[in-house]
Amino acid sequence: MPAELLKTCYAERNPSTLYIKGVQFFFSFSLKEEGLSLMKRAADAGYECAVYTHAITRAIFWCDGQYFAGIPRETVDRIRKLVRSVKWGWDLWHFDEFRQNRAMFTLAYLPSFYSCQCANLVERQFLCLWHIDVTKDNNMCDRCFWIKEIGMFLRDFEPISLFRDTRKW
């Protein structure tokens, strides 16, 4: 996308542009405060991808799950597919805290996900993020549902890194 168009969209506070810039700032440049603020503005404007990514990001980095309440479970599958359909970059551009939180999540939350009896469980030899999306049926409790979503985000999300640096706008 031409730089002038991006600048104009950002100046007009276009929600999708705020979202893209917020994700880039947060996940690629480790500018967490600025990135989260931009994602929140896009979420407040109703941009679904931003609502989802902002809620997941708050849960991962601040253990704050309050924003999940604003996302109806029946819409999560569609939104998740939209967020993950964009291949923004590659895993090596995740900043260290993201990788550390992924490891901590695996140790802290996966055991409770796999031990909860809320839904039919497909037995796995290893507690890992790789199979989390096919481990339980859709009858799981809210806690397990959001653990699954966070796990898939940590497993699949690839930040913006191959696009121009927009910090100068």
Write the layout of secondary structure elements.
Elements: H1 3-11, H2 15-28, H3 32-44, H4 48-62, H5 73-85, H6 96-108, H7 110-115, H8 142-156
Helix pairs in contact: 2-3, 3-4, 4-5
Structural account:
- Helix content is 58%, strand content 0%.
- With 169 residues, it is mainly alpha-helical.
- Helix 3 packs antiparallel against helix 4 (48-62) and helix 4 crosses helix 5 (73-85).
- InterPro entries: At1g67623-like, At2g35280_TPR_dom.
SSE pattern: HHHHHHHH
The overall pLDDT, averaged over residues, is 82
Task: Give the % helix.
Answer: 55-70%
Terminal CA distance: 14 Å
Describe the structure in brief:
The chain is an all-alpha fold and 169 residues long. It has one domain (3-156).
Features:
169 residues, mainly alpha
